[in-house]
Amino acid sequence: MSDLSKGAAWMRGEIIPIGEAGIAVTDWGVTHCDIGYDVVPVWRGAFFRLEDYMDRFVASVAALRMDLGMERAGMVAALGDMVAASGLRDAYVAMVAARGPNPVPGSRDPRDCKNHFYAWCVPYVHIVKPDLAEKGTSVWIAKSVRRIPADSVDPRVKNYHWGDFTSGLFEAKDRGFETTMLLDHAGNVTEGPGFNVFAVFENRLVTPENGVLHGITRRTVLDMAHERGLNVQARALPLEEFWTADEVFLSSSGGGVIPVARVDDRHFSNAAPGPVARMLRRDYFAWMERADLRSPIAYP
Ligand SMILES: *Cc1c(COP(=O)(O)O)cnc(C)c1O
Fold this sequence. Notes:
Elements: E1 8-11, E2 14-17, H1 28-31, E3 35-43, E4 46-48, H2 50-63, H3 72-86, E5 91-98, E6 116-123, H4 130-135, E7 137-141, H5 163-174, E8 179-181, E9 191-192, E10 195-201, E11 204-207, H6 216-227, E12 231-234, H7 239-242, E13 247-252, E14 256-263, E15 266-267, H8 275-287, E16 294-296
Parallel strand pairs: 7-8, 7-14, 11-12
Antiparallel strand pairs: 1-2, 1-6, 3-4, 3-5, 4-16, 5-6, 9-10, 10-11, 10-13, 13-14, 14-15
Bound molecules: pyridoxal-5'-phosphate.
Pyridoxal-5'-phosphate binds near residues 158, 195 and 218.
């Protein structure tokens, strides 16, 4: 039995070590970035909100007009078998729908491609390291790029079109910032590489509604905020209004609620995590252990 503790992949019905997994160089997933995907967290031995992630993935596959030749139940079984075989108790689990190679010589008709499903898992990923998240992270607003417009590439279909984010990350890293956030062409806040953005104004949360992926963690934040009696508004968030926020935080399946201490040269909540972000971060880790939101994995 090969070692799967660094990660495993499910490819064509087989579970293999992550380092041995690959797809064809002619796959449109590679040549045209033609991929839809999703990432569900595994926490303490169970998937969190699995059905919500599956709903989003299945919707992405339909929007991309892919036929994976697999039912949802088969994909869920593949994910469960793969994580069980890896033995990972806390994991980042990706499911991928790739356009596939086009078997018809010279064809540029996407309908000819053989779409396929694969999956992989690695130890749980914190998009911002926990010690940094506890202190409040730093975010650079990209100046040279804007978020790809929603009518060019639909951000509600989780996708690999990261050209805009990667440019923003270079800007951020060159200046010593942890991560980046992008604006849209109207000057509204959108999102960053793998996370949604929230601004807190007293007991009110505002998060962008259009031009962003509707994160499952974003939804969990809205649910938790509701339970805490906070007001929530999902709507356009102009940059000028964003600057007047009391607190800022990020949401992602890779680490939950991530407080922000600094955006560009501006400090928020005294350059430390604000009280609302701290409360919601604690709530998130508690919610990940809620039995009604967990699908336990059948480890051998
Ligand atoms: C994955 C992702 C998010 C966060 O979504 P979650 O479901 O909460 O992990 C936000 N924006 C983008 C662009 C993403 O890829």
